[in-house]
Structure formats: structure tokens, C-alpha cells
Amino acid sequence: MATTRRDYYEVLGIGRSASHDEVKSAYRKLAKEHHPDCNPDNRVQAEEKFKELSEAYEVLADKEKRKLYDTYGHEGVSRQFGPGGFDFRRDFTHVDDISDLFGDLLQGFGVGGGGGLFDLLVGGRTQSRRRSRGGDIRISVRLGLDEIAESVTKELSFNRFERCQECAGEGGKGKETCAACRGQGQVQHRASSFLGQFVQVQPCSDCGGTGERVKEPCKACSGDGRVRKPRTLKVRIPAGVSAGHYLPLHGEGHYGPAGNGDVLVQFEEKEHPLFLRQGDDVAVEVPVSIANAVLGAKLKVPTLGGEKEVEIPAGTQSGAVLHIRGAGIKHLDGGVGDLLVRVVIHVPKRLSREEKSLLKKLDESKSEETPAPRKPAR
């Protein structure tokens, strides 16, 4: 892992809105450029650079990891890797991309040549499967605008796999080499296509990719090494989250020999009957009488925290937007949005004779002409 935690987008030289194909293309170009076998005079530095590029690609090429990184930065994805940070053998999950990304450079990675970076990437993956991290759990939480505006604590209940206490997670007594894969944890299948024969490598279904089988399976967990149990957590949700944001709860996921996975709390927003969210601002429409719009007035308007008084300036036009500073939603990184009050002049449908007479007199004595038609604003 690189000693400095540079921004992953900066590492690959791409913008934050880059598409998956652009991420892949940037990695292909830079990985070839910094491949250690292409830099024999500077191999150590090239290998460190290649690791940094691969860590960035591992995150940005994965939709969920990228969303976590975009929301929470390095902290959001740090537990996606094992102890000590990103490691090729354990954490690089895009091995299937290697032939596509590097093509004929595979020879340079040590295929048939004795070691090299390809062995660093692919070699030893059977061992990493034996000491795999537990799976993640995804939970959706629906929040109202009032809950999003301020920090709120939610109680989450879910089931997860925990370490079996009877067999200490071993699955039973005694281990033997899996006969199906001969301890490799993976098996090869030969298939034919119009391009010719090819070999497909898959995890061994008999041992689950571990390379070993238990002689006497544990009765408590049926040889799995894990048992399903209920779990309840109280989680503080920060103000300002949006639909699609994730909150990672590190180590609260399923049990695994190399550590528990995470719980990923994904947020959904409930539609509010009165307010409309616009980023960290909240918008509301307030009907105003003709008299108040013309003469000006002080009116009480609803906010997420209760009613507040707002001044309607004389001559306010329908569609005008008034800002109440700090009455919106708290930013994730500090500060507060505004309440946007959109004025809608209410035109009464029923008028008394006296009201009609007054309006006619007002129209006849008007001191300002009605503006001419104009092109609508975009």
C-alpha cells in the first residue's frame, strides 16, 4: 500500500464524474506505464506506484465502494480491506480483468517466468480464501425530512452469521485436503467456443474454495463454522444525509476468519407533505393575499423546526423567493441550508359587492401601468 493516502481520482488522473469505462481506461494506461517489468531500473518505486494505482482502481471500479468513497472518503472504504490496508493478494478483486487490461503483458507479470507481479496479484489467493473476511449486510432506512435536518438515532435489528462457539469457527474436528481440488481451492473446467478451447477457473464447490474439508462436522453449525443470530444496534445518523448515501458500520457484518464484514446502512427519503428538499435547502410555497403582496406584511411561515416570522416586502410579485437563512438542513461538513419561501399570490374566486367595487376603484386609479408581454426566463 502506498505510504500516502492520495485522492483516488487524482491517482488515476480522472475527474469525479468519470464513467466506469474512463476509470478502466485510465488504469490500463497508467498500469502499463508503471508496470515494474517496464521499469527495471526503478522497480521498487514502480511496484509501489502500481499498488497505489490498483488500490484506486479497486475502489473506483466497484460501484458500491466508489459510492462509499465519494460520501465518506478513505474512511468509508478502509474496512473494505484487511488489517494494514490494501494488499494485492487479499484485496484485489479484479483479477478477471487482467487479461483485458494487460493483454500480452501477462508474460511480464511472471506467467511461465517464475514469480513477478502476476504472482503477487494472483498467487496465494487460495490462502486468502481460507482466511476470508465476512460478508457485508445491507440495510435500508427511510428518513423523514425532519430526521434528516437534525442528527437522529435509529435502532436497527437484523440477523447475521456469528462465530460458532461450539467449534470456535472451525466447522468441526479434524481437517483433510479436499479431494476434488487437491487442496487448491479451485477447479478448472475446459470448454470450447468458436475461438477455440479455453480453461475456466472456478472456486471448488466441494470445499467452498478453502482447499480443506472437515472430517467431523460440528452439529451446532452443520460444519459451517457460523451460526445465525439476531443483532440490534443503536446508530446515530448524521444530519444532512441524502437518498443513496451509505453509512458503514465497520465490523458489524457477518463473521469471517479474517474479521467481520460491515453493515452498510443505505438511506431513503420519505416524501414530505409540505416541504420539498433541494440539496441542503428546503422549499415551501406560501399563499399571500393581494393586499399583503401590494402593501407588505409580516407573516408566520412553517419551517422544519416550527413557525417563523418572515417579512413580505411591499410590491412582492407572485413567484418571488424569500430566504430564511439557517432554516434548512445541516450540511454533512458543517453549516446549514436555507428555507426557500416561494410567494404565490392568492386570487380569491368569490368577492362581495363591496370588495369588487374597491378593486374597480383601485384599477381605475392605478399609478403604474401593467408591464408589456415578455419572453419567459429559462
TrEMBL record:
<dbReference type="GO" id="GO:0005524">
    <property type="term" value="F:ATP binding"/>
</dbReference>
<dbReference type="GO" id="GO:0009408">
    <property type="term" value="P:response to heat"/>
</dbReference>
<feature type="zinc finger region" description="CR-type">
    <location>
        <begin position="151"/>
        <end position="230"/>
    </location>
</feature>
<keyword id="KW-0677">Repeat</keyword>
<feature type="binding site">
    <location>
        <position position="167"/>
    </location>
    <ligand>
        <name>Zn(2+) 1</name>
    </ligand>
</feature>
<dbReference type="InterPro" id="IPR008971">
    <property type="entry name" value="HSP40/DnaJ_pept-bd"/>
</dbReference>
<dbReference type="InterPro" id="IPR001305">
    <property type="entry name" value="HSP_DnaJ_Cys-rich_dom"/>
</dbReference>
<keyword id="KW-0479">Metal-binding</keyword>
<feature type="binding site">
    <location>
        <position position="218"/>
    </location>
    <ligand>
        <name>Zn(2+) 1</name>
    </ligand>
</feature>
<dbReference type="GO" id="GO:0051082">
    <property type="term" value="F:unfolded protein binding"/>
</dbReference>
<dbReference type="GO" id="GO:0008270">
    <property type="term" value="F:zinc ion binding"/>
</dbReference>
<dbReference type="Pfam" id="PF00226">
    <property type="entry name" value="DnaJ"/>
</dbReference>
<feature type="binding site">
    <location>
        <position position="207"/>
    </location>
    <ligand>
        <name>Zn(2+) 2</name>
    </ligand>
</feature>
<dbReference type="Pfam" id="PF01556">
    <property type="entry name" value="DnaJ_C"/>
</dbReference>
<feature type="domain" description="J">
    <location>
        <begin position="7"/>
        <end position="73"/>
    </location>
</feature>
<comment type="function">
    <text>Participates actively in the response to hyperosmotic and heat shock by preventing the aggregation of stress-denatured proteins and by disaggregating proteins, also in an autonomous, DnaK-independent fashion. Unfolded proteins bind initially to DnaJ; upon interaction with the DnaJ-bound protein, DnaK hydrolyzes its bound ATP, resulting in the formation of a stable complex. GrpE releases ADP from DnaK; ATP binding to DnaK triggers the release of the substrate protein, thus completing the reaction cycle.</text>
</comment>
<keyword id="KW-0863">Zinc-finger</keyword>
<protein>
    <recommendedName>
        <fullName>Chaperone protein DnaJ</fullName>
    </recommendedName>
</protein>
<dbReference type="GO" id="GO:0031072">
    <property type="term" value="F:heat shock protein binding"/>
</dbReference>
<dbReference type="Pfam" id="PF00684">
    <property type="entry name" value="DnaJ_CXXCXGXG"/>
</dbReference>
<dbReference type="InterPro" id="IPR001623">
    <property type="entry name" value="DnaJ_domain"/>
</dbReference>
<feature type="compositionally biased region" description="Basic and acidic residues">
    <location>
        <begin position="356"/>
        <end position="372"/>
    </location>
</feature>
<feature type="binding site">
    <location>
        <position position="204"/>
    </location>
    <ligand>
        <name>Zn(2+) 2</name>
    </ligand>
</feature>
<dbReference type="InterPro" id="IPR018253">
    <property type="entry name" value="DnaJ_domain_CS"/>
</dbReference>
<feature type="binding site">
    <location>
        <position position="221"/>
    </location>
    <ligand>
        <name>Zn(2+) 1</name>
    </ligand>
</feature>
<feature type="repeat" description="CXXCXGXG motif">
    <location>
        <begin position="164"/>
        <end position="171"/>
    </location>
</feature>
<keyword id="KW-0235">DNA replication</keyword>
<feature type="binding site">
    <location>
        <position position="164"/>
    </location>
    <ligand>
        <name>Zn(2+) 1</name>
    </ligand>
</feature>
<feature type="region of interest" description="Disordered">
    <location>
        <begin position="356"/>
        <end position="378"/>
    </location>
</feature>
<feature type="binding site">
    <location>
        <position position="178"/>
    </location>
    <ligand>
        <name>Zn(2+) 2</name>
    </ligand>
</feature>
<feature type="repeat" description="CXXCXGXG motif">
    <location>
        <begin position="178"/>
        <end position="185"/>
    </location>
</feature>
<dbReference type="GO" id="GO:0006260">
    <property type="term" value="P:DNA replication"/>
</dbReference>
<dbReference type="GO" id="GO:0005737">
    <property type="term" value="C:cytoplasm"/>
</dbReference>
<dbReference type="InterPro" id="IPR012724">
    <property type="entry name" value="DnaJ"/>
</dbReference>
<feature type="binding site">
    <location>
        <position position="181"/>
    </location>
    <ligand>
        <name>Zn(2+) 2</name>
    </ligand>
</feature>
<keyword id="KW-0963">Cytoplasm</keyword>
<comment type="subunit">
    <text>Homodimer.</text>
</comment>
<dbReference type="InterPro" id="IPR036869">
    <property type="entry name" value="J_dom_sf"/>
</dbReference>
<feature type="repeat" description="CXXCXGXG motif">
    <location>
        <begin position="218"/>
        <end position="225"/>
    </location>
</feature>
<dbReference type="GO" id="GO:0042026">
    <property type="term" value="P:protein refolding"/>
</dbReference>
<comment type="similarity">
    <text>Belongs to the DnaJ family.</text>
</comment>
<feature type="domain" description="CR-type">
    <location>
        <begin position="151"/>
        <end position="230"/>
    </location>
</feature>
